[in-house]
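Minutes, structural biology subgroup

Action item carried over from last meeting: produce the C-alpha cell record for Heme A synthase (Halobacillus yeomjeoni). EB confirmed the sequence was re-checked against the source entry. Recorded below for completeness.
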Amino acid sequence: MKWLKTTAVAACLGMLLVLLGGALVTKTESGMGCGKSWPLCHGQLIPSEIDTALIIELSHRVISGGVGLMVLLLSILAWKMVGHVREVKFLSFLAFFFLLMQGLIGAAAVKWGQSDFVLAMHFGISLVSFSAVLLLTIIIFEIDRKFDAQSLWIKKDFRIQIYMLTLYTLGVVYSGALVRHTYSSMACLNWPFCSNASPLDFASYGLGQWIQMGHRFAASIVVIWTLLIFKKAWKEYRHSSVMTIGWGIGSGLLILQVILGALVIVSYVHLGLALLHALVISLYVGLLSYFLLLSSRSSKNEKRTKKP
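Output recorded by EB:
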C-alpha cells in the first residue's frame, strides 16, 4: 500500500508539472521548438542545433511521456489493489485516457497544425486528467484513514450548484486558454476594463479584446459564485470542516487568481506570474473535482436510503 501511495503522489505532482509545462510552451511560443517533427526533434533523437524554444518543447514532451507512464502504472495498480472502491476503475480509465488524448492533440498540432480554438482545449483536457489522478490519490489515502467527509451528506440543491459551477468553470478555463492561444493576453492594456478611461467603448473592440474581456467577465462570475457557495457552506454545514475549509480555500484561490490576473496585465505578461495563474486555477479545479466526488457519493447514499 505504501508503494501505491508513493506512486499516486508522484503522479499527482507530475501532472502539475505537465500542466505548467504546457502553459510554459504556450507562453514562450515554443510549440514549434522541434519543428514539425514528433516525437523526434527536427527528425533527430539528439538535435544538433539547440535553442531555448527547443529545450522547452522537448522537456515538455519528455516530462509528459514520463508522467504518462507513471499515470498508467498508477491506474493499473489502483485497479488491482483498490478496484473494489466504487470510483477507482472509472477514475483510472479517465486519468490515462485524457492524458493520452492531450498528448495526441499536441502531436497533431505539431504535425499538421490546429486552430486556436482546438488548441485551447489542450489545457482543459490535461486538467481533467489531473483531477482524476488527484481523486485517485485522495481515495487511496482515504482507505486507512477516515476523514469527516466519509459521513458528509450534501443536499441536492447544493450538489446541483457544484455540478453547474464545475461545468461553467471548465468553460472559463477554456476561455483563458483561448486568450493565450490567440495571443490576446495584452489585447487590453488596462485592468479591470479594457480601457479604464472609457470602459463602455465596445464599438472599437477587436477580436482579441472581446476574447480578453469575455474571459474577465466570465471569471468574475466564478469568483462571485464561489463566494456565495462558501457563504452557504458556512451557514448550512458549519459542523463539517471539509465543507467550510474546502470552500474557504476555494474562495482564497480565486481571490489570488484575480490578483494574479491583474498583475499579469500590469507586468506585461511576466512569465512567472502567468505560470502561477495557471497553477492556481489548476488547484481550484482539483478542489472542485473533490466536491464532485463527495456529491456523487451523497447522491448514491440518498438513492439507497429511499429504496423500500
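Discussion: The two ends are 38 Å apart (CA to CA).
Next step: EB to file the record with the rest of the batch.
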